[in-house]
Specification:
Number of domains of chain C: 2
CATH topology of chain B: Cytochrome C Oxidase, Chain A
CATH class of chain B: Mainly Alpha
Number of helices of chain C: 7
Strand content of chain C: 15-25%
Distance between the termini of chain C: 66 Å
Largest sheet of chain C: 7 strands, mixed
Radius of gyration of chain C: 26 Å
Largest sheet of chain B: 2 strands, antiparallel
Chains: A mainly alpha (210), B mainly alpha (696), C alpha+beta (320)
Order of helices and strands of chain B: HHHHHHHHHHHHHHHHHEHHEH
CATH topology of the largest domain in chain C: Immunoglobulin-like
Number of domains of chain B: 1
Oligomer: heterotrimer
Number of strands of chain B: 2
Order of helices and strands of chain C: HHHEEEEEEEEEEHEHHEH
Strand order of the largest sheet of chain B: 1-2
Radius of gyration of chain B: 25 Å
Helix content of chain B: 55-70%
CATH class of the largest domain in chain C: Mainly Beta
CATH architecture of the largest domain in chain C: Sandwich
Number of strands of chain C: 12
Distance between the termini of chain B: 77 Å
Mean pLDDT of chain C: 89
Structural class of chain B: mainly alpha
Low-confidence stretches of chain C: 1-12, 20-28
Number of helices of chain B: 20
Low-confidence stretches of chain B: none
Helix content of chain C: 25-40%
CATH superfamily of the largest domain in chain C: Cupredoxins -  blue copper proteins
């Protein structure tokens, strides 16, 4: 196991001769952080909308009738594990482990991401069976405006995993792709962070105040 | 017809074309509508025809549409903004004419008038002010901070593509269907599916969503560019004032565009999917919309006006031949305005019934903004104080701005008082106020910048005479059009009135329409100025690149600058680095060595996304679901395909850089420096003679 | 430069002319708080002028000094004015530049705080009590005034007793609107399914125009009404007149009233010979009309479009 050279972007193994590539990944990663901040505002506003609409149930089904905490618990476990596996992919990158290690952890993450989506969609369908459709009330509109938005991000993350996996296979571990791996990992952790907000505010908050 | 049961062409049919209306009911209203549609069609045909006639398609594609050069993207932004400005001004004139045709009903149908004020507002904010501001920023920021390009050149191109395709939706709405009648704010429930089932609000929604994404990407791009790509030695407190304003603007964009996106998308969910965010029934609440919209809307006006402040800061310093007074104050003031702008959104709806306490708090927060703004005005005056002021065109815009903008500030602080706002909210007083800050504030600033940096972009100066004519016309036109509206507003005339009865409004309406015609002439004078300047360009060439004896880095490059901006990245030692270098006498150093320079490679991705997103929006507006789905897949596909491209930069060899740079240095050494008395004479080739003492 | 000299002069002329017209038009019915007919609008006007004067302290120096500086320090041969190209900071000047606006804003804030609380539209600080209760419903494109305690309602004519406080509760049965009688008080939004409040009081008998200021479609500019302030006895007579001449405001009548129709169209549809040409009078059949309108949006079920007043499906131009 080799140590990463000093003076490089943390978490990236760019060689000594890669000064410009190193600077480029610093710029790109910083830009991605700025993007995530902007995206965070989207979620923040959707949380705010949800909170203001928690009482707008208009006689329709509310959190107590609709939310299934067992499934939420399973989804949480899956998503948190996937954050761990993305982290392991990052470690593989940082310590110059063979490329297949990164791809392997990507595959595990992808499977976890899909399982999460399957469970989530299953949840939505069972909610719909109980009359919990977004057209029913402001509260449900807010729920379906927020939780599937997160789901959509997870789906986008899965697509990104697939594309990046293919690119790693085609191009090998180039500087550019290394910096993409870093950004994907950031994105994935960001989704976890949002999910923590969702279980706290949407599910626990909904059950407490709804 | 509901969303689920539309056919192959969705809800598109022949009645959507304005000519159908003209055939059924030929009247003034339909003639205006058809003339507008006709202008769009003739315009498109003319552009296509001219490009074909002069065989410019190839060069347009190679040199412009696929270019990722920040300077070219900036210029394309500005061209787009000016085209949209022409439409916006024309709409303004038609609206003023409609009101001047009173008392009574005028010549337009109410719905048509409503479309006019909705498109006018939407265009002027999203498709004139924003692209103009960021066009100038695109051109300038890398040059000012000593960088070779922005942080993400391709993303920059995509931003432009999305902004333009969204703007085109506004043009398409003239020819197919109609635009929203809900104003630029599009408040539900009026814009909801129940009350407005037509395509109008959908055009608004998608134009806003797509241009909003473009603007957000621009904000990210410029924040990162200024944070990360400054030349060595350019500390934050050595940034040109203009770059400070752009960084504040960019931060505002990053945080303020999401609320707009959320507002528009939730409205879309209500309209398309029968959600209940803002509907009357089932727990919808339109007050959420008002909050979301203005959480965006207020920072928006500052993200437009701050860059204009930045332009004025550069202009006042250069044309007073003096350092900018109170740099630190100006930086603090700019940052304070940016932060405070997020704390005042509620003043757009003091009248929604919240408690006096909340109104008072937001009212005071609003007035606080007047403090840093006032400081800025005083700082500019102090910059002129003990200077050597030249009344060149940008400076004239600056002076007109100072005199008129304080009137807008006055009415702004008045509006910050909830008690007064109860009376003048939704009246023409408010309309006069925001035109008073947007015209002398933003537009004059942009025009000043346009006159100031044009020689840098194209290598020749703009006509001074026609510049002066347009300053005069804009100023007089503005005063005649909008100052009367303050008084009509105080007299109680609601905004967006297509008719009125009170005879005491009449004289004001007449003055205002005369003013609107003067503004139209002002717009024409800008075009004439451009025409005359292109015609006489041989007499006004400034290849050396510093026609105004200016102070910041961008003037140390040739005009127009090479694709790589700087042959050698400068080392910055001073705030006005170029002015300091000129004083030291080494403004044009000969480099010891040259190196290979990589610049972004041309790419078609921005243009492809522009076209695809345009079709996508059209399909969504007209419920052509298969097409919308196809476009979604194609947009995703083309973006993913682009990420497989590994070659994104081309290298300009050191030898080529050396040849080019040495040729220019030769020119510098051969040129005769001119003093400021000959600034507008043909012998001004862009090499300034320091004459600090000569003027005293 | 000629320009910068011209602008303030041009402005002065304009302001003078405008002030003249604003004050000269006070002869007729008042449509503006520049000619206040009640204490609330009077305080608003006073506050406007006070704020303007205070802000002018910061603005006038700019208007005066900019031309002076521009002329004095213009570049010309033989100029004897000082030239300090490197001067870019002065502590004392900074103190004034920041200090003066801070003091002005502090003063303005003080007045703002007081006035905002004093003129809170929800607070009943002016006029004689007990207040007259009025419920106001915004429709496309007319205002309906319900007097729940008197059993009457009107459209187009809003009778109020002089000096007595009028306590209004507002809602709409269509899109958002904004209610305002400029000569008496400022505006307040009326929103579907929600209520807002406004208190007004008038000083003397007179007629004042009221309006909606929030664009809501074709009939927007015709959504006006006359507010008639009357001495108490005249008001009682007016109430009697409405009661005797009014038609009953039952469900059927309300449905016609709530359709998309402007003042003239609804007058044709519902007006009778006993009513004035520009007003409709009603007696209240259903005393809880206002509550039922607000509650329309709080049922547990979605509203069909044809049950939503203000939509095309609900009906328009009073033609059935």
């Amino acid at each position: 196991m080799k140590r990463a050279p000093t003076h490089s972007y943390p978490g990236l193994n760019l060689g000594r001769r890669h000064a410009s590539a190193d600077k480029a990944s610093e710029v790109v990663t910083f830009g991605f952080w700025v993007f995530l901040m902007s995206d965070l505002v989207y979620f923040g506003l959707m949380f705010a909308i949800y909170i203001t609409m928690i009482d707008a149930q208009a006689g329709g089904p509310g959190p107590h009738e609709l939310f299934d905490l067992t499934s939420i618990f399973a989804q949480t476990l899956i998503l948190l594990t996937s954050s761990l596996t993305v982290g392991l992919a990052m470690l593989a990158l940082k310590y110059n482990l063979p490329r297949w290690r990164i791809v392997f952890w990507f595959c595990v993450t992808l499977v976890l991401g899909f399982s999460f989506l399957v469970l989530e969609i299953h949840d939505f369908m069972s909610m719909a069976e109980k009359g919990g459709i977004p057209q029913r009330s402001g509260f449900l509109s807010a729920f379906y405006g927020l939780v599937p938005l997160h789901g959509l991000h997870v789906a986008a993350g899965c697509l990104w995993l697939i594309v990046l996996g293919i690119q790693l296979r085609v191009f090998g571990l180039t500087d550019l792709l290394m910096s993409r791996v870093v950004r994907l990992a950031l994105f994935w952790h960001f989704l976890d962070l949002i999910w923590i907000g969702i279980i706290t505010i949407v599910y626990f908050g909904g059950l407490t105040y709804g | 017809m509901t969303t689920s049961e539309s056919g192959f062409f969705g809800r598109l049919n022949w009645d959507a074309f304005p000519i159908a209306g003209l055939i059924q009911t030929p009247n003034a209203n339909e003639i205006v509508a058809n003339a507008a549609a006709g202008v769009v069609i003739v315009g498109v045909v003319a552009v296509v025809g001219l490009l074909t006639w002069f065989r410019l398609w190839g060069s347009l594609w190679r040199d412009w549409l696929t270019s990722a050069d920040h300077k070219k993207i900036g210029i394309m932004y500005i061209v787009f903004a000016i085209v949209m400005l022409a439409r916006g001004v024309l709409e303004g004139v038609v609206m003023r004419a409609q009101q001047a045709a009173g008392p009574g009903d005028g010549f337009l149908e109410p719905e048509h008038f409503a479309e006019l004020f909705s498109t006018h507002g939407t265009i002027m904010i999203f498709f004139v002010a924003v692209p103009f501001v960021f066009g100038v920023a695109n051109f300038l920021v890398p040059l000012m901070i000593g960088a070779r390009d922005v942080a993400f050149p391709v993303m920059n191109q995509i931003s432009l593509g999305l902004t333009v395709s969204a703007g085109m939706m506004l043009m398409v709405s003239l020819v197919v269907g109609e635009f929203s009648t809900g104003g630029w704010t599009a408040y539900p429930p009026y814009t909801g599916a129940a009350f407005n089932p037509g395509v109008g609000p959908d055009y608004w929604i998608w134009a806003i969503v797509v241009s909003g994404i473009g603007t957000t990407l621009t904000g990210i791009n410029f924040a990162v560019t200024i944070y990360k790509l400054r030349a060595p030695g350019m500390k934050f407190m050595r940034l040109p004032m203009y770059c400070w304003t752009i960084i504040c603007s960019s931060i505002l964009i990053v945080f303020a565009m999401p609320p707009l996106g959320v507002a528009a998308l939730l409205l879309a969910a209500d309209r398309y999917l029968d959600f209940h965010f803002f509907t009357n029934d089932l727990g919808g609440n339109m007050m959420n919309y008002a909050n979301l919209f203005w959480l965006f809307g207020h920072p928006e006006v500052y993200l437009l006006v701050l860059p204009a402040y930045g332009i004025y800061s550069e202009v006042f310093a250069t044309f007073s031949a003096k350092r900018l007074y109170g740099y630190n104050s100006l930086v603090i003031a700019t940052m304070s305005i940016a932060v405070l702008s997020f704390t005042v959104w509620l003043h757009h709806f003091f009248t929604m019934g919240q408690s006096a306490l909340i109104n008072a708090v937001f009212g005071i927060a609003t007035m606080l903004i007047a403090i840093p703004t006032g400081v800025k005005v005083y700082d500019w005056m102090a910059t002129m104080f003990r200077g050597r002021i030249r009344f060149s065109v940008p400076m004239l815009y600056g002076l007109a701005f100072l005199m008129l903008f304080v009137i807008g500030g006055l009415s702004g602080v008045i509006l910050a008082n909830p008690t007064v706002d109860y009376q003048v909210h939704n009246t023409l007083f408010l309309v006069a106020h925001f035109h008073n800050v947007l015209l002398p504030g933003v537009l004059f600033g942009l025009l000043a910048g346009y006159n100031y940096w044009f020689p840098k972009a194209f290598g020749f100066r703009l006509s001074e005479f026609w510049g002066r004519v347009s300053v005069a016309l804009w100023t007089v036109g503005f005063m005649l059009t909008f100052l009367p509206l303050y008084f009509v507003g105080l007299m109680g005339m609601p905004r967006r009135s297509f008719s009125w009865e009170d005879p005491s409004f009449h004289p004001y309406m007449i003055v205002a329409v005369v003013g609107a015609l003067v503004i139209l002439c002002a717009l024409l004078s800008v075009i004439v100025q451009l025409w005359v300047s292109i015609r006489d360009r041989e007499k006004t060439r400034v290849p050396v690149g510093d026609p105004w004896d200016a102070r910041t880095l961008e003037w140390s490059t040739p005009a127009p600058p090479p694709p790589y901006n700087f042959a050698i990245i400068p080392h910055v030692t001073d705030r006005d680095n170029f002015a300091a270098a000129k004083e030291r006498g080494n403004a044009y150093p000969t480099p010891d060595a040259y190196e290979d320079i990589s610049v972004p490679l041309n790419t078609g991705i921005g243009f492809i996304l522009c076209v695809l997103s345009g079709i996508w929006m059209f399909a969504l507006v007209w419920w052509i679901w298969w097409l919308a789905a196809l476009m979604t897949v194609m947009m995703l596909g083309s973006f993913i395909a682009w990420t497989f491209k590994t070659e994104t930069e081309r290298v300009i060899p050191a030898e080529e850089v050396r040849k080019r740079h040495e040729a220019w240095l030769d020119l510098v050494h051969k040129s005769t420096p001119v003093d400021r008395d000959h600034e507008t004479a043909p012998e001004n080739r862009g090499l300034a003679r320091p004459d600090l003492e000569a003027a005293t | 430069m000629a320009l910068s000299r011209m602008s303030p002069k041009g402005m002065q002329v304009l302001i003078a002319a405008a002030v003249f017209t604003v004050t000269a038009q006070t002869a007729g019915a008042s449509d503006s708080f520049m000619d206040p007919q009640g204490p609330i609008a009077a305080v608003q006007k006073l506050h406007l002028f006070r704020a303007t004067v205070l802000i002018l302290i910061a603005v006038v120096p700019v208007l005066v000094l900019v031309p002076l500086i521009a002329i004095r320090y213009r570049r010309r041969s033989g100029s004897n004015a000082l030239y300090r190209p490197k001067w870019d900071f002065s502590g004392r000047l900074e103190f004034v530049m920041w200090g003066v606006p801070v003091v002005i804003v502090a003063l303005l804030s003080f007045y703002l705080w007081k006035a905002t609380h004093r003129l809170d539209p929800y607070a009943a600080r002016f006029g004689e009590t007990p207040a007259l209760n009025v419920q106001v419903v915004g429709l496309d494109w007319k205002w309906l005034f319900i007097y729940p305690d008197l059993g009457i309602a009107s459209v187009g004519e809003f009778g109020i007793p002089v000096k007595q406080q009028v306590a209004m509760t507002l809602t709409t049965d269509t899109v958002m609107q904004s209610f305002m009688i400029p000569a008496l008080a400022g505006q307040i939004y009326a929103m579907p399914g929600m209520t807002t409040q406004l208190h007004i009081v008038s000083d003397a008998p007179g007629t004042m125009q009221g309006e909606n200021t929030q664009y809501n479609g074709r009939g927007f500019t015709k959504q006006k009404f006359q507010t008639i302030a009357m001495p108490t006895e005249d008001f009682s007579t007016w109430v009697e007149k409405v009661r005797t001449n009014g038609i009953q405001l039952d469900e059927k009548t309300y449905r016609i009233l709530a359709m998309r129709s402007d003042r003239d169209e609804v007058q044709t549809a519902l007006g009778t010979a006993q009513m004035p040409g520009n007003a409709l009078y009603f007696t209240l059949g259903d005393i809880d009309l206002f509550q039922s309108i607000v509650h329309r949006y709080h049922g547990g079920e979605g509203l069909q479009v044809d049950q939503q007043p203000g939509t095309v499906e609900f009906g328009q131009e009073a033609s059935q």
